[in-house]
Amino acid sequence: MIGLSSQAYAQQDQTLETITVTASGIERQLAKLSSNLTVLGQDVLREVNHQHINQVMSRVPGAWVSRGNGQEHLTALRSPVLTGGGGCGAFFMAQDGISLRGLGFCNINQLFDTNALQAQRVEVLRGPASTLYGSNAVHGVINVITPDPLSNQAGELGLTLGPHDYQQAKFSVSHQQGEHGVMAYGNASHDGGYKDDSGFEQQKLTLIHQFQGENWSIKNVISGANLAQDTAGFIRGFEAYKEQSRKRENPNPEAYRDSQSMRAYSLIDYRPSEHEVVNITPYIRWTDMEFLQHFLPWQPVEENSQNGAGVKLSYQQVQQTFSWIAGVDIDHTQGELTEFQAEPFAPHLPAGFHYDYEVDATVIAPYAKAFWQVADRLELSAGVRYEYTDYDYQNNLSDGSACAPEVTNCRYTRPSSQQVSFNETSFEVGASYQLAPNHRVYSQYSQGYRAPQATELFRLQAGQTVANLAPETSDGIELGMRGQTSGLFYDVSLFAMEKEQVIFQDANRQNVNNGETSHRGLEFLLRYQLPKNFFVQANGTLANHTYEADLTLSRVNIKGNEIDTAPQHMGSVQLGWQSPDDKQVVLEWQHMGNYFVNPENTADYEGHNLINLRASAPVATNLTLAAQWLNITDQDYAERADFGFGQYRYFVGEPRSLFVSLRYRFD
């Protein structure tokens, strides 16, 4: 699938020829992939001009990036919205194929580390993908691709203004001289916050140098991001999001999140012959984050940081009938975490440092994948990966309970310093068959896994001194069909996935490893070119996510229950018009189905429907005026509904809003 661009509607015949690397490791046409892939191109990113990443991810079937306050978010890809210390570990989130965080140190909000707004494209692969990406690719991959200076010659200045003092400025400049190209782009945003005592300041900057020679291609990238956020917490009470007097309520005016990140890497591509490619990708990354855990009544402060370096090496042989890639990924990350509580809340929730530890994580992972053109219409593929993960953990505080000796039910437990390692193997097989020109069926069986996160192993509670955890694993199968006619593009897929050894916290607050879940559904993307420059596009998901393990929570066995925060149906439809002179109007309907908000399935959220309108038109040479009218019907809705500490709680969706943008392009 390719992404929702107005210009793409006039280029239907090129859709299946889109070249991608994310799904296969080798440059391949979208048509030949044996798995799903959605590509959100530069045009759709410009059209949506998102203030939050969830606004553009709603264009991806099977995906839901649930919006928290400010830039916070939770992710779902063929899954429920996953929370907790390991929830983020179910997804491989990357920039140019390089993980945004080191293994074991993911963060549920880590997509705000990358600049998706000004990316060349965002590629989303749904389902297990560990053969290429290793640990964390349990439910899928989100890969943000940076622009190439040699193919992006125009510069741009942009300004967006919106409600509650929202301001965003962005720029991009590029220059080419011979075989070299340089580019700089970035943006700065200020949001005064819809909720009381909320808002954020955010800045992002990317610098790129590219060299394109006869046999060598080198792309050097440095990117960084800074976020200073005043965070608003949940409002509590059944359907509180419908109460006008409470919509701006912020029960946690003291909450905040400060986050900085930086990545530097080189994408080195050497072609010794017509059929050979050597890829070398060395990289370094750094992150530092501090935030108040406003979602806990006792409100401790967490600070985490990491410094990492690694290299991705691969060799490819690309032939007409048989191609293959083999490589190794090596990563070493030094991570630190502290948790501090200023005031005592209860004897078992004491003041002081709850945790202070360091973890050195090392990953070595060789892999290989092959593609065989068995016949004119049939291609088969297969891949395998082995991954070794080692955690060297150092506790900087006393071992055991964080409470006074006389307290027997202390919430916080510090395990003693130790070394833990994991070995995991995964494989995948796939097939793609051409039914007719521009129409193919595809299928794939794939495996995913993730090593336990450092917080799951070493941030223990309630007297647990050792977490004997194994990697989570998933087995997925999908069957799909994609193709196009002169006016229609379609991609429809059926999927089924079983997930085992799921890590969760039981009723005794122990981290355990015996969860099982099942995920089945149908995803589709349809795009049709109507007469007189009109077009319509729809994407949707019908799915069922259930607990399969024999587990008891709150004295209720949840086996067979629907997983909480897992809507059975969601999707969006865009009806648009694009003129030859770049005028555009797009009317959008977004649908979120109802879902349970607790594992016992006794509390739920009714779902919602939103109507948005986006329009843009040139108003002078190289100057474009655009507007976004969001939630036109002023729907009362929740961006996310939850149930915690015995209460309904919600992040409130914003009312009717108008954003206006000016964009100036120059050579």
From TrEMBL:
CDD domains: ligand_gated_channel (cd01347). Residues 32-141 form the TonB-dependent receptor plug domain. Keywords: Cell outer membrane, Ion transport, Iron, Iron transport, Membrane, Receptor, Signal, TonB box, Transmembrane, Transmembrane beta strand, Transport. PROSITE patterns: TONB_DEPENDENT_REC_3 (PS52016). It is found in: Cell outer membrane. It comes from the Bacteria. Belongs to the TonB-dependent receptor family. This is TonB-dependent receptor. The lineage of its organism: Bacteria, Pseudomonadati, Pseudomonadota, Gammaproteobacteria, Alteromonadales.
